[in-house]
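Quick note —
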Amino acid sequence: MKKILVSGCLYGWHVRYDDGDIPCLDKRFLKWKEEGRLIPVCPEVFGGLTIPRPDSQRVGSKVIACTGVDVTKEYELGAIEAVRLAKENDVVVCIMKQDSPSCGSKYIYDGTFTDTKIEGQGRAVQLLRESGFVVLDENDLDKIEKLIEEN
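Predicted structure written out below.
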């Protein structure tokens, strides 16, 4: 059975910076979850950050919390763990939460904490892609379904 790496908040874990979750309730996603295909990961938590935690955004190659604290190290550790899990589970695709400084695959916040999004990718997504993994988001389930069928 082909495995899928997925952001923990989409999986249903309460791991977001605000202690929330945003579970994906699409019937295909829920079927994959029931089948045991989904491998959840939260790069921020796996990198050592707490729940809740200050909102953070990418600023160039760094990740900075809204408090001004540099949390790049934790984001890097979490990205490395995401890649390790993807390799260990031989995942065919990754479904990562859009807009996140770890998991955004198309857009991220611009680092000004003004709710402004820019084209970009989170650190975990960047490292996953550099390691050869296909990374899509929760809005790409049609593409993901085809990838699973093809592999």
